[in-house]
Amino acid sequence: MHKLYEKKHVKKGKWMKDPKAIQITVPKGVEHIIRQIEQAGYEAYAVGGCVRDALLGREPEDWDITTSAKPEVVKSLFLRTIDTGIEHGTVTVLLSPQEAGEGDRAFEVTTYRVDGIYEDGRHPKAVSFTGSLEEDLARRDFTINAMAYHMDRGIIDCYHGQEDLENKRVRTVGRAEERFTEDALRMMRGI
Q1: Adjacent-strand bridge partners of 81
Q2: The pLDDT of residue 104
Q3: Which partner for 130 in 87, 94, 135, 171 could form a disulfide, CB atoms 3.0-4.6 Å apart?
């Protein structure tokens, strides 16, 4: 296990008490977006596979951001955006080289959401935006992808993703049958 990872257990639904327990170096662009959203009065975190990969000591392929800000707010905060999945609350923010530093300049920012019914075995028919990070994390596929990170607050791990990483275990958030019925591709991602 990489030294970025430090064993910390939290009970389901609880926030990690020690915000300095784990430090992940996030790209300048990710920090810029998170800080900009926070200055407007909203929450924002790096989320999902980038957090998992950083804990494993791997360079994340991309960095996703989740926020309490609705898409129209995110679009108003940044000069250049693309509606990449606006019906699901996703906007891609394009940063200048000065804002992003080295590396990626495009980052997906998605509003906290709760997924509706999946009718096609792949995508929810509709989503509802929520103000709760915990509700957003609850809709995710695996515990190791249901972690969020903030530079000041540390890691948010409501579903024991860190423990599952340490034990090399892939476990769904909630009932496996439900998660795989919602999106059959999750079975392949779990392998």
Answers
A1: 93
A2: 85
A3: 135
Report the percentage of the chain scoring pLDDT > 90. Answer: 61
What's the CA gap between 67 and 69, in Å, rounded? 5
Encode pLDDT of 73-101 as tens digits. Answer: 999 999 999 999 898 899 999 999 999 98
In a domain, 110, yes or no: yes
Does residue 121 sit within a domain? Answer: yes
Residues across the chain: 191
3-state secondary structure at position 8? coil
Domain that holds residue 160: 28-181
Q: Does residue 133 belong to any structural domain of this protein?
A: yes
Mean pLDDT of the chain: 83
**Residue 170 belongs to domain with CATH number:** 3.30.460.10
Q: How far is CA 99 from CA 29, 30, 80, 124, in A?
A: 6, 9, 12, 34
Helix (H, G, I), strand (E, B) or coil at 139: coil
Count of structural domains, the chain: 1
Buried-exposed string 35-59: b where 16+ CB fall within 10 A, e elsewhere:
ebbbeeebbbbbbbbbbbbbbeeee
Domain-located, residue 188: no
